[in-house]
Amino acid sequence: MVTAEFRAAALHDAVNGLRENNPSASAAVPFVRWQKWTAATLLAAGLAALVAWPVPTLIAGTALCTLVYIATLADRLLLLSRGLARDAIMTVDDAEALAVPDAELPNYTVLVPAYNEPEVVGDLIAAMGSLVYPADKLQVLLLLEEDDTVTIDAAEAAGMGESIKILKVPAADPRTKPKACNYGLHFATGEIVTIFDAEDRPDPLQLRRVAVAFARLDDDVACVQAKLAFHNGAQNMLTAWFTADYALWFSFILPGLMRSRSPIPLGGTSNHIRRSVLDEIGAWDPFNVTEDADLGVRIAASGMRTAVLNSTTLEEANPDPINWIRQRSRWYKGYLQTWLVHMRDPLALWRSIGTVGMLRFTVLLAGTPIVACLNMVFWLITVSWLLGQPDLVQRIFPWYVFFPALISLVFGNSAVLYMNIVACRETGNARLWLSCLTVPLYWLLMSVAAIKGTYQLIKDPSYWEKTFHGLSS
Fold first, then answer.
1. What's the rounded Cα separation, in Å, for the pair 380 and 368?
2. pLDDT at position 104
3. Separation of alpha carbons 208 and 231, rounded Å
4. Which of 31-45, 292-306, 344-358, 416-430 has the lowest mean pLDDT?
5. Which residues, 6 or more positions from 446, have their beta carbon under 8 angstroms from its beta carbon?
6. In this structure, what DSSP letter does residue 227 have?
7. pLDDT score of 389 more than 70
8. What mean pLDDT do residues 292-301 have?
9. How far is CA 425 from the centre of its chain?
10. Average pLDDT, stretch 9-23?
């Protein structure tokens, strides 16, 4: 019997466990003192230089941004080339997955956090019921906030399967997905733990495939990440852009990262982790709004690896631009949170993941949102130049800055369009070719989301902006 004292202790640990046991790994404090002073010093120095030497400062800033763009693009192309290799991603076919006797399968726990989602909870229970795994070895915990009565009522009305149980999470701040997962972990019985989101439709054989993959892989593999895709990719242009984005990321970039042994920012769902590893590294950070990316970096920093499996979980792509921006701004904020947390001791991080891993970690987690923010600045400069060719724009683009920037613009945009087309073709989404050709419009939305996420990092770093589901037609 679970006592009130056990629940209280589980809640305390869910919220404070990582912060108390490893304070430097927690995003509860978004900026440590030296980071605040460094940021303030750099900002003051930049403003002083801009006032004293405006044109040389703008030229130097433009040149630096161009180099960052080129380096980011070159790394993406390298990862794509590695991800195209046939052995870049693990494959466990149906026959292999079904051949394992039930008695040899490990105990499995599936955590499904949901909040205020009564419209999808029935489909969620059906999706969990379709998993092909022995019922006596499967535990599905539906993590619902105790004051979320509408979702609780909808779940109970839908009926629980043999392995599914509602676990009511005490209402307490922070109201985040990782807090709920940490709480659920105290009730988990599985040797392997995974997370599915409320709208997910996982491959029915995914758990069995992962069990085979772990048996085949070395002991230093802590996590197996399944691929994510969307079931409503053709609903509108936004869902098509989102689908192309995911096709490139999960089918090629992440497998390319796996081959390089660089830190892998995990997806928010369908990451299957050894329970012993979660206990060792402190599970999820309840104050980090991309707890998945943070956990992936901590796995790499602990000397362990992540593998990518060719098993797909279908999700719902956001068809609404406002809802999409809410979701993407949280991701960008969380990427910056994760980078700041792990850069508190850059020397220790460098020793644990190496020079290439350190550079790629910075390019992915800090570079992705920062480049998205800078895009807006450079688009405004380009529009100003096209409309009126103001003298200042011409002065900050001397030939030695103009030509590299032009190459970055033309070659960079062409390369990204090419990567999206390849990803859609190779993943069976060739019908989305129009979205690949119009993806610069998607980048505009990304830029808006990145600016919003960066602002929220300062204003409200641990606020979890809710993404609404059940909008697909």
1. 19
2. 95
3. 22
4. 416-430
5. 328, 372, 375
6. E
7. no
8. 93
9. 23
10. 89
